[in-house]
Amino acid sequence: MNDILKKITQQTLKDLSVRKRNMTLSDLRSMPGYGRKTFSLYESLKNGSGIIAEHKRQSPSKGSFKCPADLEKVVKGYEKAGASAISCLTDEPFFGGSLKDLQSARNYVKIPLLRKDFMVDLYQVHEARAYGADAILLIAACLDDEQMKTLAIEALNLNLEILFEVHNKEELDRVMQLTQSFNPTKFVIGVNNRDLKKFETSIEISKSLIAHFPKDVLAISESGISDPEVVKELKQISFQGFLIGELFMKTDDPGSALKSFIKSVEE
Ligand SMILES: O=P(O)(O)OC[C@@H](O)[C@@H](O)c1c[nH]c2ccccc12
């Protein structure tokens, strides 16, 4: 694991131990959101714009985006503009998000919600369910095979879909190995274009990894996307999902920014 990921996951484990003390698993299970019917990320991506629009206030590489719009305006704007799903950051120390954000977003929209966080513990999967997520992110670079398997199976058992995030061929191979026996409509695989050592993004990473994807797996390209032409190009090489945050969150009105982006992609 590289230094920044190590730093983030260590902090995540620390914060987690506090939350676990304040709320037990059975407390989580008795929250109203826990048993609700979930929306399918996979189906929504297949049948719509393919864009997963992200709510992210800040990031370690870019600092604060200073978006003046509150969460309600952002997520309702995304839904209205035609997002297939919303990615909601719940990491507090590095991305300025919270589980409360996820819970509020759940009350505002009826499209799939991805809990965007550094998942390293089963408890977080139950939190995701209780606070209204439909899908969770599992970052291959943060997890060994055994952890990834345990978290993935728990998610599927709780009716949550999974976005597996990979950055190179080795991580993709590990995820493919794990998901061999999974129903391909219950997970998607995302290529993160951001190099977590240098924080630079390059679409070339998506372009080079797509050749290794199994045919029935829905492929997503994540990070550093700012040009509708790039989405068109990625669609041609069979990407069906696009995770975009900064481009929208650095504007005053992320919903309208998404709306004009989708319009350009469709032109
Ligand atoms: O803001 P961008 O460059 O459009 O990227 C969005 C998303 O891909 C990025 O926020 C992200 C990808 N993987 C993550 C893991 C954790 C936190 C954040 C991320």
What can you tell me about this protein's structure?
The structure is a single chain. The protein is α/β, with parallel strands linked by helices and 267 residues long. It has a single domain, classed as Aldolase class I (TIM Barrel). Strands 1-4-5-6-7-8-9-10 form an 8-stranded parallel beta barrel, surrounded by 7 helices. A two-stranded antiparallel ribbon has the order 2-3. The mean pLDDT is 97. The structure holds indole-3-glycerol phosphate. It is an enzyme of class 4 (lyase). One of its GO terms (molecular function) is phosphoribosylanthranilate isomerase activity. Keywords: Amino-acid biosynthesis, Aromatic amino acid biosynthesis, Decarboxylase, Lyase, Tryptophan biosynthesis.
Keywords:
alpha/beta; Indole-3-glycerol_P_synth; binds indole-3-glycerol phosphate; 8-stranded parallel barrel; two-stranded antiparallel ribbon; single chain; aromatic amino acid biosynthesis; 267 residues; RibuloseP-bd_barrel; EC 4.1.1.48
- Fraction of residues in β-strands: 15-25%
What would you call the structural class?
alpha/beta
Largest sheet: 8 strands, parallel, barrel
List all distinct small molecules, including ions and cofactors, that are bound in this structure: indole-3-glycerol phosphate
Q: What best-fitting shape do the alpha-carbon axes yield?
A: globular
**Strand order of the main beta sheet, please?**
1-4-5-6-7-8-9-10
User: What is the helix fraction of residues, given as a range?
Assistant: 40-55%
Under CATH at level 1, the class stands as: Alpha Beta
- Spell out the CATH superfamily: Aldolase class I
Q: Write the CATH fold name.
A: TIM Barrel
Tell me the series of helices and strands, N- to C-terminal. Answer: HHHEEEHEHEHEHEHEHEHEHH
Runs in which pLDDT lies below 50 for 5 or more consecutive residues are none
Radius of gyration: 17 Å
Task: Give the N-terminus to C-terminus distance in angstroms.
Answer: 41 Å
CATH-derived architecture: Alpha-Beta Barrel
Report mean pLDDT, rounded to a whole number: 97
